[in-house]
């Protein structure tokens, strides 16, 4: 659920502050968020934000 919330927040049109997203989604800190994001998606949150499709739960397969 935290990961899904993070995906939605990343797609917001305003500037992304990773620490704010981490805390809003219930992660202990930004490093924990990024590590778990990478474990679930295989990519960093920054890379995801640059390649995000119209479907926020979609993660490209490589």
UniProtKB/TrEMBL annotation:
<feature type="domain" description="HTH araC/xylS-type">
    <location>
        <begin position="1"/>
        <end position="51"/>
    </location>
</feature>
<dbReference type="InterPro" id="IPR050204">
    <property type="entry name" value="AraC_XylS_family_regulators"/>
</dbReference>
<keyword id="KW-0804">Transcription</keyword>
<keyword id="KW-0238">DNA-binding</keyword>
<protein>
    <submittedName>
        <fullName>Transcriptional regulator, AraC family</fullName>
    </submittedName>
</protein>
<dbReference type="InterPro" id="IPR009057">
    <property type="entry name" value="Homeodomain-like_sf"/>
</dbReference>
<dbReference type="InterPro" id="IPR018060">
    <property type="entry name" value="HTH_AraC"/>
</dbReference>
<keyword id="KW-0805">Transcription regulation</keyword>
<dbReference type="Pfam" id="PF12833">
    <property type="entry name" value="HTH_18"/>
</dbReference>
């Amino acid at each position: 659920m935290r990961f899904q919330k993070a995906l939605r927040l990343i797609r917001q049109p305003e500037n992304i502050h990773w620490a704010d997203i981490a805390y809003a989604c219930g992660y202990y800190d930004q490093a924990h968020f990024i590590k778990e994001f990478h474990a679930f998606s295989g990519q960093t949150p920054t890379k995801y934000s640059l390649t995000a499709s119209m479907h926020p739960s979609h993660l490209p397969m490589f």
